[in-house]
């Protein structure tokens, strides 16, 4: 388990360090694949899936992950970190609109895939899936902060 988390941290931190604003994950397909495989291993363990269920879940999750990865989630997080005093009204308005567009896209994707996930796993497991994804993001961000401090 610790090995899975370590691999995931390494892969995601590498991805985030390489993913500058002008760059796209599509430029790093092997890295992206390693990250997705690490996430899938973590999800399989967390949701306590047997191999048969996992084999049905995997293609659905991969489609879901592909769609979610097209959303620039930095826009959603950026709203909370911005110095509002440095913005004009138009800039603030645009930030809010961008954040709402991203949030709406994420909600639409989750609604679409909820129906598909439900054909493979239980609703309780879907909640656990979202919790696991959130925990993975938190772990990665904590690891990135730790690495920045140690520079």
Helix content: over 70%
- The gross shape turns out to be globular
List the uncertain runs.
7-24
Distance between the termini: 27 Å
DSSP strand tally: 0
Helix/strand structural class: mainly alpha
Report the C-alpha radius of gyration, rounded.
Answer: 17 Å
Biggest sheet statistics = none
Q: What fraction of residues sit in β-strands?
A: under 5%
Average predicted confidence as pLDDT: 82
Helix segment tally: 6
Please provide the ordered H/E string of secondary-structure elements.
HHHHHH
Describe the structure.
With 151 residues, the protein is mainly alpha-helical. 79% of the residues lie in helices and 0% in strands. It is built from 6 helices and no strands. The chain has helices at residues 2-18, 29-46, 51-69, 73-81, 89-118, 123-149. α4 (73-81) crosses α5 (89-118). The longest helix has 30 residues, at 89-118. The radius of gyration is 17 Å and the shape is globular. It starts with a helix and ends with a helix. The model is unreliable at 7-24 (pLDDT under 50).
Task: Give a brief description.
By secondary structure, the protein is mainly alpha-helical.
Notable characteristics:
globular, mainly alpha, 79% helix, 6 helices, single chain, 0% strand, 151 residues
What is this structure's SSE topology?
Layout: H1 2-18, H2 29-46, H3 51-69, H4 73-81, H5 89-118, H6 123-149
Helix pairs in contact: 1-2, 1-6, 2-6, 3-5, 4-5
